[in-house]
Amino acid sequence: MCNERVSAQCRQRHPESGRRVCGGEVLDMTERAHQVHPFGPVCDEHSKILILGSFPSVKSRENGFFYGHPQNRFWKVLAAVTGKAVPQTVEEKRTFLLESGIAVWDVIASCDIAGSSDASIVHAQPTDLRRLLAACPIERIYANGTTAKRLYDSYQRAQCGRDCILLPSTSPANAAWSLERLVERWAELLE
User: Taking the model in full, what pTM does it have?
Assistant: First the structure.
């Protein structure tokens, strides 16, 4: 799939270079690199909720785990929703998810991407969610943001036979949503 569409929050231009700016990152859409998802899903036989992202950010790829950018509000939102402390280390985050019955994975297995920008993704190849859904008692699937939802609907909805519920992105690029609003909306995870 080729997605050349640029999201609304990535239409700003850097005053000197003229390049697009998205989430504080200056993008050159011609400088995409092919990336393969570097780590597997977090899930076990107790996972009832699946949260899907699009593709790991540069920081997440460097850290080898989901939502590794310090400005991403994913861990703060989940901690507030579950009433638990915000996990800090990769092992604490993994334990936090599994003890909460939450599985995390991404929609994209590989793509060409500029930095961390979802808006720059082209040539996306989907992950195979069927194995995860067969191994775990997932009751509900959520998408962390519109890109994850759109790609799930395009690639995986038909093969999985399951709907995916859109939640607002926890990315720092989604500045329109405060932490408080995100927590309020994401609280439906535990309803």
Answer: 0.83
